[in-house]
């Protein structure tokens, strides 16, 4: 019997967030850690990402990708789902609870992440545009509305629907992108929810691995 091949994921050769864990390989690393899988990392530069070899794995020339044996995937949500569906630990066994956890995965990516991305786009790419000052509060208000609804649903629970699931993993990953904005702190239960996610040993291992990679680049190793 041959040993199973470790998954290989692609990550930024040099992450623009300087190791803060905000790039989307972090959620894949976290899912791999939660399910106890060893994995390998392949570093990709911004230019290599746009080359045909990488585009064969990722049609949009981005990270992360995931390869295991003959399977190649892109899209962090699909990768996390694949990991969660094929290993114990991130999706409940009960069919209805599982369907609800998957619903939260979609909610994180389709309902909460889009306005969060709008904020990052306007902050980092549109700061010198004429519409910046007018658009920024509108985008922030849309995020507040999402956070308010999410905070109401979470209430005083630890996780969104029973035990920690891939839905929480993706929701916490998305919310983490708001940390620097201060918006998260307006909702104390959401701030505590994110802190609970960050305190998980699997999250810490994933975070440390991506930070070590950045620090290694810093020292020129
Ligand atoms: N929908 C895709 C998914 O979920 O996998 C989106 C993938 C994506 O946006 N990948 C980004 C990428 O490859 C990296 S994560 N960008 C390069 C390119 O498009 O050419 C986005 C990201 C980048 C940087 C930071 N940061 O520095 O804080 C945070 C998040």
Please describe the structure with a list of short key phrases separated by commas or semicolons.
binds S-(P-nitrobenzyl)glutathione; Glutaredoxin; 9 helices; 221 residues; four-stranded mixed beta sheet; globular; 2 domains; Glutathione S-transferase Yfyf (Class Pi), Chain A, domain 2; alpha+beta
Low-confidence stretches: none
Class by SSE composition: alpha+beta
Percent strand equals 5-15%
Largest sheet: 4 strands, mixed
Note the quaternary state here.
single chain
Number of helices: 9
CATH class identity of the largest domain? Mainly Alpha
CATH topology of the largest domain: Glutathione S-transferase Yfyf (Class Pi), Chain A, domain 2
Strand order of the largest sheet: 2-1-3-4
CATH architecture descriptor name of the largest domain: Up-down Bundle
Strand element count? 4
Describe it.
The protein is an alpha+beta fold. It has 2 domains: 100 residues, 3-Layer(aba) Sandwich (Glutaredoxin); 106 residues, Glutathione S-transferase Yfyf (Class Pi), Chain A, domain 2. The protein contains 9 helices and 4 strands. Strands 2-1-3-4 form a 4-stranded mixed β-sheet. Helix 1 crosses helix 9. The longest helix has 31 residues. It binds S-(P-nitrobenzyl)glutathione.
Brief overview:
This protein has 221 residues and is α+β, with helices and mostly antiparallel strands. The chain has 2 domains: 8-89 and 202-219, Glutaredoxin; 95-200, Up-down Bundle (Glutathione S-transferase Yfyf (Class Pi), Chain A, domain 2). Helix content is 56%, strand content 8%.
